[in-house]
Amino acid sequence: MKSPPEKSSGIIFVIVYLSFFLDNVLLTVVVPIIPDYLFSNEIKMKANITTYHSVTSLSPLQRKYESIDSENGVLGALLASKAFVQLLFTPFVGYAVTKVGCYLPMLLGSCNILLASLLFAYGKSYGLLVLARALHGSSSAAVSVSGMSLLAKHVPVELRPKLMPVAFGGIALGVLLGYPFGGAVYQHLGKQAPFILISLVISMNIGLQLNLINRFSSEEEDDTEECISDDLELINLLKDKKTMIASGAICISTTTMAVLEPCVPLWLMGHFHPAPPRWILGAVFIPDSIGYFLGSHFGGLLPIEGWRVGLTAMLIGGLSSCGLSSATTIPQLFLPHFGIGLSVGLVDAILVPYLATIIDNRGSSKYGSVYTLQQLAVSLAYSFGPLLGGEAVNLIGFSWLMKIIGLLNVMFSPLLLELEKSSNQKVRRRDGSFEE
Predict the structure, then answer these.
(1) Which of 269, 287, 300, 331 would staple 337 via disulfide (CB 3.0–4.6 Å)?
(2) pLDDT of 73
(3) Contact (CB, 8 A) for 340 and 291
(4) 113, 118, 173: which is closest to 137 by C-alpha?
């Protein structure tokens, strides 16, 4: 029996929200744990990149950290492995969504998140941690593309700019809780505890999906028919100037956050005296999470044209990035961290629904390709951000790295003026009519 549309949409929204939340909790919970765990246990990292010096122990945080900066590349490679795999899997997930619908990729993605979490809990070698991070990348591709496609299909066009950003609350809440949760639980209960707790919640989410997926079997067949797109759909989107500008803005703003994750914990341990305790390595990201939470929730509610919000957000992110490395105390980090998180949240809240509008204006409901492109932009940021950022610290230093990234945000922001031309266009509904 097919559920009423309103009830169906509500259940789907809850599943997508929870899946986004768990995906991003696992994404961020490792950030304060992995640097200290790797170095304090003298794990010899062999990433086929180069050989690095072992550090006796970072847990007491009482030694000189002359060698820490040289480890940014190895840590960056571990964190970036997730995004590289996500980058590779995203086109395949987009194709799968067009062929088999959205529910099965969502379920398989959740199962992979569970396996990745267990590998993080019990893996002790650098290789197993990289494998866990990479497996998480494949699950993120499935959850992100299928989740955004489901929302674009089930959220009414006229409510999409307001309601779709609410779904980002799962992302924002996961990011908000992941950093401090990981740091605090790791300090008091050890490495396994946070990942085991996450695994329990993931199992509940999988059970919910298995219990509800049969209700939407007939709807899934309809979605498969509607999702089928020609092989040139993604190529056509790559030729669209507005699509590329929106995706580029998402990529650049996300890169700012991606670079911070591997670099800030080591920068704090190496250059702040006295060096901060473990829980600070996660708590320092709380302002980012709060900023993202506010930006993603309320960006779509602002009585301002979207292109203006996006342009302003990138300027805020650029200036915050330039000022972050000037901090000499932990409290001085709060404002630039908050500005970076707010910037990323606003850009997502405005431009992710805008991408669905581009498809609507073409008279189509094939959202898999456009959200494949959006996830490719995010994956590029999280692939090359940590990896190149970690290596750039060795060459030019953390301060200059953040200034260059900030300048890149500022220089790209005027391109959003191009979106002004479409801000007054009427949005085509699926029945062919136009939104007033």
Answers:
(1) 287
(2) 58
(3) yes
(4) 113
Token code pair at residue 38: 């790797």
Q: What is the pLDDT of residue 215?
A: 67
- pTM, to two decimals: 0.73
**Distance, CA of 32 to CA of 276 (rounded, Å):** 12
Q: Averaged in consecutive runs of 10 residues, what is the pLDDT profile of the chain (436 residues)?
A: 56 86 89 73 43 38 40 65 83 82 86 93 83 90 86 74 76 80 83 90 89 63 47 70 90 88 76 71 80 84 80 93 84 90 90 82 72 84 76 81 92 87 53 48
Burial 158-183 (b: 16+ CB within 10 A, else e): eebbebbbbbbbbbbbbbbbbbbbbb
HEC states along the chain?
CCCCHHHHHHHHHHHHHHHHHHHHHHHHHCCCCHHHHHHHCCCCCCCCCCCCCCCCCCCCCCCCCCCCHHHHHHHHHHHHHHHHHHHHHHHHHHHHHHHHCCHHHHHHHHHHHHHHHHHHHHCCCHHHHHHHHHHHHHHHHHHHHHHHHHHHHHCCHHHHHHHHHHHHHHHHHHHHHHHHHHHHHHHHHCCHHHHHHHHHHHHHHHHHHHHHHHHHHHHHHHHHHHHCCCCCHHHHHHCCHHHHHHHHHHHHHHHHHHHHHHHHHHHHHHHCCCCCCHHHHHHCCHHHHHHHHHHHHHHHHCCCCHHHHHHHHHHHHHHHHHHHCCCCCCHHHHHHHHHHHHHHHHHHHHHHHHHHHHHHHCCCCCCHHHHHHHHHHHHHHHHHHHHHHHHHHHHHCHHHHHHHHHHHHHHHHHHHHHHHHHCCCCCECCCCCECC
**What contacts 212, CB < 8 A, 6 or more positions away?**
11, 15
Phi, psi of 428 (to 5 degrees): -80, 125
Calculate helix-pair angle for 192-213, 5-29, nearest 10 degrees.
160
pLDDT of 28: 82
Extract the tokens encoding 221.
Answer: 């067949």
Q: Which of 276, 260, 256 minimizes the C-alpha distance to 268?
A: 276
C-alpha 263/C-alpha 254 separation (Å) is 15
Cα radius of gyration (the chain): 21
The set of residues, in sequence order, having a beta carbon less than 8 Å from that of 110 and lying 6+ positions away, is 19, 22, 139, 143, 202, 205, 206, 209
State how far the alpha carbon of 191 is from the alpha carbons of 176, 367, 383, in Å. 19, 39, 25
Tokens encoding 435: 């939104």
